[in-house]
Design a protein that fits this description.
Order of helices and strands: HEHEEEEEEEHHHHEE
CATH class of the largest domain: Mainly Alpha
Distance between the termini: 28 Å
Largest sheet: 4 strands, antiparallel
Shape: globular
Radius of gyration: 20 Å
Number of helices: 6
CATH architecture of the largest domain: Orthogonal Bundle
Helix content: 25-40%
Number of domains: 2
Length: 268
């Protein structure tokens, strides 16, 4: 599933390509992706609009037009393409956006778990917490968030209400870099571990953005390329392989219905 680094990569690539362009037409081929209005209203609201900016909150991409704000969640397999010829699965292109200069933008989603909303003003997205890249996630705030709960660390990182944007891949990687077990309770971590966790959140996510995200299956950049962060993962999908720190075998367990990878020796 595309997480914060993948959505941020897409945002950074789309913005210079489409900012200032006027939408000529919109064709939504799969209406169930649209969550808060009818397809005809969606298309009518976007025709004639100019893309002024693109922003992001957690895993949500916000397209800022003159008087309309479509919001995209990429689900499990959503990607954007500037040329349908770059698609390996053109039958799964569900949205075409044509611009007055002759260019276009396409949204593809093989598994159809993506979601699209339309707002008339910049959306609040109230159920999302602090974005650790664009927000001001301080060490003190992180300590406060942890102290208010008594849940496992992996579940804490996956919960989008205190901190938004972190999913399964990066939660495992952040905890490994921090030296914290995914089973540790949030109210049991000490000051040194809070500091390590705070640093790891920023480092893991920023490094993944610099590497254009993590590709295992469907995710591709706007240019149709794979990310490269999968070549640098320390624990995710490395069950049975030696830990890069101590040589012990990487373990796999299921936490919150999601596969979790960790080193039982390094993550106490």
């Amino acid at each position: 599933m595309p997480e914060l680094p993948e959505v941020e990569t897409i945002r950074r690539q789309l913005l210079p390509l489409y900012r200032g362009k006027e939408i000529a037409d919109v064709r939504l081929k799969t209406p169930q992706l649209l969550k808060n209005c009818e397809p005809a209203f969606f298309a009518d609201a976007l025709r004639g609009q100019t893309i002024e900016n693109m922003s992001r909150k957690g895993k949500f991409l916000i397209v800022e037009c003159s008087h309309a704000f479509p919001v995209f969640h990429l689900g499990m397999s959503g990607i954007f393409l500037k040329d349908p010829a770059e698609s390996r699965y053109p039958q799964h292109i569900h949205l075409d956006i044509d611009f007055t200069d002759g260019s276009a933008l396409y949204f593809q989603d093989m598994r159809k778990f993506g979601k699209i909303w339309l707002y008339q003003e910049y959306p609040d997205l109230p159920n999302l917490g602090i974005d650790p890249i664009i927000g001001e996630l301080s060490e003190a705030q992180l300590k406060e968030f942890l102290g208010k709960r008594s849940i496992g660390m992996k579940n804490f990182l996956m919960n989008q209400k205190p901190i938004t944007g972190i999913g399964n891949i990066y939660a495992s990687e952040i905890l490994f870099r921090s030296g914290i077990s995914p089973y540790r309770r949030t109210d049991e971590v000490n000051a040194g571990e809070v500091k390590a966790l705070h640093e790891s959140i920023h480092t893991i996510l920023e490094d993944a953005i610099e590497r254009f995200g993590t590709t295992y299956s469907a995710y591709r950049t706007v240019e149709g390329e794979s990310g490269t962060n999968q070549d640098f993962l320390k624990v995710y999908q490395r069950e049975g392989l030696p830990c890069t720190k101590c040589g012990s075998s990487i373990l796999k367990s299921v936490i919150g219905s999601r596969s979790t990878f960790f080193c039982d020796n390094c993550q106490q």
